[in-house]
Design a protein that fits this description.
- The chain is an all-alpha fold.
- It has one domain.
- About 85% of the residues lie in helices and about 0% in strands.
- The radius of gyration is 14 Å and the shape is elongated.
């Protein structure tokens, strides 16, 4: 399905942009940053989690129609 492919491609591009903008990947912030008690990493991880929940709420109904 081309629509599903475009949605997944856009999601991948947004993840790449977010990783670059946040200064690291989700795993790096969650494991290394939180173990060093870095406040920016805590904020980033909370943002990743909330963003994932919101996008799942909107994208899953589009993909699994």
């Amino acid at each position: 399905n081309p629509k599903t492919f475009i949605i997944l491609l856009a999601g991948g591009l947004l993840i790449g942009f977010g990783t670059r903008y946040a200064g690291g990947c989700t795993s790096g912030h969650a494991i290394s940053g939180l173990s060093n008690l870095q406040l920016p990493s805590l904020i980033a991880v909370i943002g990743f989690f909330i963003g994932g929940l919101i996008m799942s709420h909107f994208l899953l109904p589009l993909i699994f129609r």
